[in-house]
Each structure stands twice: as C-alpha cells, then as structure tokens.
Fold these 4 entries.
Entry 1:
Amino acid sequence: SQAASRSTARPGASSSNMATTSQRSSAVGMGNDEFTNLVNNTVYYILVADQHKTPIKRKDIQKFVLKDHSKSIKEVLKEAKQKLSEVFGYQLIDLNDRLGSYILVSQLNLSDAKDFLNRNDADNARLGLITLLLALILMNNGAVTEEKLWSLLSLFGLQSEVDDPAFGDLRKLITTDLVKQAYLEYTAVTDTEPPTHQFRWGMRAIHEASKLTVLEFVCKVLGNGVRPEQWTAVYNDIIRYQQQEQQ
C-alpha cells in the first residue's frame, strides 16, 4: 500500500522520540503505554478517514478515538503528527477553520498526469483532471472565473451540461467534491453582475502540488520543447513564492 511504501522512519530518532512521548504522556497524566495506544489509534483513524479525501474534524477524533481522554487531544495530535511524518511521510495540516479540521497531504505524483485524456484509467483520469484544473488556475494568475474555466475545459472535451463517461456529474465534482476535498477554493466574486464565482488552489493542492511541477506539466502537454522559463511572468511568480517559503 502507499502508506506501507512510505515507511521511512529516520535512523536514530527512536530514543529522542521515546523521551518526548514520555514527557507528553506525563503532561496529560497517563502512562506511556496508554498514551502510545491513543496515539497509534489516532494515526490509524486519520489514515483511514483520509481515504475519503475530505477534511478530518478534531471533534470526531475526540469522539471516536480519544473518548474519555478528549482533553488530551493537543498532546496526542503532536505525537500523531510526528509519527505520520516520520513513519508514513505524510503531513497533517491544520486548516485553521471554525470546524477544527485537518487534511493529510503528501506530494502528488504527476508523472502520469499527462495521460489525463485516457479516461479508461479512473485514477489517472482523476489525477489528470485535478492537475489540469490546477494548471489552468496557475496560468491565469492564480484565479480563474467559473465561466472562463468551463470555456477552457471545453477545449479538452469536458462539458458541464452532460455527464462525463469517466467523471459523471463534472459540475458537481469540480464545484462541490474537489472543494470539499480542499483541492480547490470556490468563492463568490464581489461586485459582479451577473454574480459569478472563481476558483483558486485549495489548501490540499498548495501542500501536495508543486507549482513548478504543474508548470512543467503544462509544458509537457504543449510539447515542442516548451520550457517553464518561457512563461516568464508565471515562472518568476513561482520562484518568488519558493523564495518566500524558504525564508
């Protein structure tokens, strides 16, 4: 499985981790074994819940996993985050929303995304669609109106009015499902007549997809030896963004 293939615990980390675990279990008045069991159950719950690719709610972890120990969630999540990162290679991202939601992210593998027009492979088709959407948003200065997005998608044979053979109700998938899964943000544009909406990259996309990799995807689709640097404005924005992230 993907989780198993990510098992890359850092050498030499175990002794310091044990000390940290002991400190955290003491902080919440629990023995090491009981605390570790709660952490492991939380990690398992998060991995299973992530299969739906919808945000994982803090209150659900408290209700279904921690139960009588719900007040220990801060320390349990600290330990769970560490284990998810070191053992499975995932990041647990706090969305900082009013519901107290988290998403589990890893780097998207875009190597097969250029085959997105092959609708027979459901996984590749979905990954390709997500990558295409992110690319169209990226190439439109980070935001694209709903009307323009559908116009661009029609060039790839993707229509909002009819069910797609691979994706079914494409409008619902893009405006609802991928928004719930935090790949896209879908917001109303103020002071427009008639009212319209726009799309931006969602939190999951920001953490899972490299903007430079998405730009490279665009170049592969276009072919003819097109290089990322030739998209001067977009490329320079990406470089500035990467420099800010490193500061």
Note: The CA atoms of residues 153 and 159 lie 7 Å apart.
Entry 2:
Amino acid sequence: MRLYGFPMSPNARRVHLTLEEVGEPYEYVLVDLTKGEQKKPEYLALNPAGRVPTFVDGGYVLWESHAIMQYLAAKYPEKGLDGGSAHERGEIAKWLFMNAAHFGPAFARIFAHTIRLPEDQRIARVADEGRAEATKSLGILEESLKGKEWLVSARLTIADLAYAPSLAFASMLGVDLSPYTHVSGWLDRIKERPSFKKVFE
C-alpha cells in the first residue's frame, strides 16, 4: 500500500492516521504542495483532481480521504474501524459526510483566509463564515459525545479519526475548544494513541 500525501494536509493526515491504526505495511510518498508537485503529469495520472491524498493498493488507485478511510476499514474489518453493525456503519457514514460537507471545509476557509493566502487576498467575512460553521458543528459534536468516549462505537472508528486533523489545528486557527469539554476530552484521547503521535510527530 502506498499513500501520497502532504504533512500539513488534514485530508492526507486522516488517511495516514487510519493506516497507522490498521498497522499493515505501507509507503508514504511526499507530494510537496508548496512546489506544485500535485500538478505534475505523473501525479495527475493517478489523481486527476490534483489534490492529496491519493492511495494505491496494488493496481487499485483511490482518492478522496473519506473514501480511502472507508476502503481501509472494510478491507481490515478485524481492526474494528468500520463499526460492528449496520447501525454503526450508518452512523459512521453520517459523521464522515458531515465532516466532508461542513466541518472540514469550515476549517479550510478559516485557514485560507487567516494563514494560507497572501494578506491582500484574505477576506475576513469568509473566515468568519468558517468560524460560524465550525461553531455549529462543534456544538453538534459536543452534544453527541456526552457520556461517550468515542463518537459512534465503544471503540475508536474512522469517524473519530476523520475529525482529529482539523481539531488538532484549532488553536492555531483561533478556534477555542475550551467551551466544548466533551470534544476536548475526545481529542485528548485520540492524541494519546500511538497513531496520532506517529503522524503528528
């Protein structure tokens, strides 16, 4: 297995976390976004979207981080990352879609318009809209985590791993997690795992 990624990409990091939780051998290939390596013809041949991550398993090529996570969880069911029932898999899918559609893009907007873009291209309104969406999602997560260690199951699943990379950047982006005690505790539990320490070292 081979993962093409970039260390600062939350999308690549969530797949990297999943691979570490799976515990099977894999190769990590750096795609330096700062040098435009994602636009090279040889990379576009793998991923025509020109983004990270891209995952290769034998002759099978897959992109989109949540799809890769679902593939790995299904390929290694003994790891328990895909839940243990149809109900849990439905819940996992719900949280993955929420992350892909709302939570992740909210953090991406904040990052772009406070850090990534040149100052003359930053739009404060867009960053504020991202914070508003992030706040809404954090409230939903906070309520859902009451009385639970993990988001869906009695054990960690890909639903938990999906949110960790964005949450890990919260303080850098000025997103205060202190009002969300259940979310903060959840993130702390993820940070204690060897997979997180390996990916974020």
Note: The first strand starts at residue 2 and ends at 5.
Entry 3:
Amino acid sequence: MGDLNVTSDVANVSSSTMSAILSNTTEDDIVRDNSTFNETDVPPTFLQTTGAQVISGVFVWFALFLTCHQIYQHLRYYTSPSEQRWIVRILFIVPIYAFDSWLSLMFFRDNYYIYFDSIRDWYEAFVIYNFLSLCYEYLGGEGNIMSEIRGKPIRSSWWYGTCCLGGKTYTIGFLRFCKQATLQFCAVKPLMSVIILILQPLGKYSDG
C-alpha cells in the first residue's frame, strides 16, 4: 500500500508540473518555435540562393546598360520631342522594373520586396499613361482618330475583345470611354499600393 501511495504522489506531482509548464507556454512561444523550425530545417528554394541572385544580377545590369544607352541616344538626338518624351519615359520602366525585381530577390526573406514593388507599381501606372499618350501621338491626336473611324461599324471579334459590341459604330463617346477605362488603371494601381503599405506593418496583408 505504501508503494502505491508513493506512485500516486509521483503521478500527481508530474501531472501538476506538466500543467504548470503548459500554462506558462504561450501561443507566441509555439509560433516562435514553429518559425525557428521552418527557418532552420526547411531548405531554401533556388530563388533564395546566392546563385540565383548572381544570375539575375548579371541580366539586370545587362538590361540596365542597354536601356540607358537607348535613353541616352534619344536624349542626344532629340529631334522629335512630341514623340520622344513619351518614349524616354516608357524606357525608364526597364531599369526600374529590373532593379526592383533584383532587390526583391535579394531581400525576399525580410518581406522588403513589398515596399520595392510599390515603387514599381507607381511607375508602371505612369508608363500606362505615357504609352496611351504615345499611341494618340502616333495616330495624330484624338481629332484625327475620330475623322478616320467615325461612323464605321465595330466588328464583333472574340480575338479583339469586341464580341459584345456587334452592331455598334465608332463614336467620340466610345473613344473616350476606352481612354477612361485605360486611365483608371493609373489611379487604381497606386491606390492599391498605398493600401498595401498601410496594411503590411499592421500584419493584415499577405500575397494571394
């Protein structure tokens, strides 16, 4: 009977000790242990290796050299300002996009890429505006475009995305609607980037 009492006492002490340990273990400790396990035991992907960073860096600097040379040539022979100003602005997307992608790859573990991508998104929206303006410049402006297509029927085509416009004709209203639909991207894209920058420090944002 004495041995049974000692055994039961030991069991009670062990259970009470385990209960105390579990009660002192917070959810943050569990999350911290899981994050430590993930960082140390899970092997990195190829994009997180030094080799990937070196290879991407070579192509990034090659793209920077080519694009900067093209920009320099446009500025040196600035003979058509009405067109070249749009072209130079569009060309700047190459170094910005390439360098941003490289920095995002270098600091991928720290989630700094979210801030780099926001800068890229802002300039991307600016480039869309410049590309639309360049198209209008090539076609002679809004007035010249309308004089060429006004009254012509819109051909229904799945390939060109006009499948729902069969039977309609080109009008100034249609042209301006297309322009507004394109330019709304220039407003929505930076706005979404600002929202991401607000939600990221609060821990409310994750890539989907």
Note: Residues 2-14, 30-40 have pLDDT under 50 and may be disordered.
Entry 4:
Amino acid sequence: MDRKNREKEMASVLLSAIGIGFLSTDDVVNGFVLLLESAEDTALDVLDAPTELAYFLARAVIDDVLAPLNLDEIGAKLPANCNGSETVHMARALLAARHAGERILRCWGGGSGSAVEDAKDKISKLLEEYESGGVITEAIQCIRDLGMPFFNHEVVKKALVMAMEKKNNRLLDLLQESFNEGLITTNQMTKGFTRIQDALDDLALDIPDAQEKLKSFIEQAKSKGWLPPFVSPVLQAAA
C-alpha cells in the first residue's frame, strides 16, 4: 500500500495467481482481517490505507479470489468498533457501482498495462478465429493458455457481444464446452453476463435488439446450468 500503482497492480495479480490452488479462501479472508484490524496503525504511515484496502478487497472479489459473501464473513470477524468495518463497507460500495468490474480492474492503471491489454487482444483474436470456422478444441486450448482463469469473464463478455453482432450462436457452443470442461466457472459466467448488462445502453446503439438477445442468452445459460436458477437482481431485471 505504500508503493506506487504499478506495484499495487502487481500485488493484485499475484494474489489472483496464488489464490487459485495455493491459498484457501479462509487464508485470504484471515489475511484481510489482520490487515483491517491493523488499518489504523497502517494509516499512520500510509494515510489512504483504508481506501487502498477497500480497493484490494473489491479487486479480490472481481478476480474471483473471494466471493461477495466473504466480505460479510470478514466484517463479522472484525472486533466491535473496528474502523476496518468502514473499509469493508467501502469495498461493497465499489462493487455495487455501475461498471464496477471495469473500474476496479483499472483502479491502479491495470487496464492500460500490458498483461490485461494483451489478454484482451488474445481473447478477441481467438474468438474471431473460432467464429469464422475455427476448431473448438483449439479455441479451448487458447483460453487455457491465457493462464488467467480469474479473467475468463472477459471471454464470456466478448463471446456474447460477438454472438449478438455476428448473429452466430456458434460462440455459445464455445461457452458451453468451456463450462463443461470447468474452464469457465459459474461465477465467471455470472460476471461476464453482468458486465454485458451494465454496458447494455451502449451496446444498443450498435445492436438495437441487444436487450432481447441478452434475455435469450440468459434463459439459455440458466437452462444449461451456466448461470444459477436465481441470478443476481441485475440479470433478473434483464431476463
């Protein structure tokens, strides 16, 4: 927290990487609890420590290291009258904001960094190749080779937008196979669909029937198990 934005972004990327297979959710929860308990002392040296911690918490949720419900667990573990509770509340507010995923991913300039932009470019290219007649096994391998499972909601988002634009439901077959292989989780699917819903007004400028198409995609996703039967209020409104 006492370093520059580049180091903060690197720390979040590292947490995302080691949080899959190396650290348990309890480890991450307890780590944040310790940080929040000592936030007042940290603020003596890092004045904006509470705000930075809120962004780290929100980013952990966006990166699929923590689930939203883990924020409640963290809050419940804090001592009474601990200022860390305000930081948890701030993290919830960040996640509830419009276009939260995009904003939090870019909170330290990560969106302009090579790793994220490179991943987005590779995702676009693999989807374009698959849409134009590519082999599904090769597309699946390309997604796996990205090595960023916490960012697979970008695959979902771009695939859905391309399916709307190209009127090609073949892209839904790719999502189905990715889900079947456990490559894209229900959580990542939900994030991808939610990001589409957040951007629906802009999408409708180029795709007039975007709302109807999204509704159809949501129903298909629920029937195939990609999305839970009871989706988030945002997606429920779209459906």
Note: Residues 114-131 form the longest helix (18 residues).
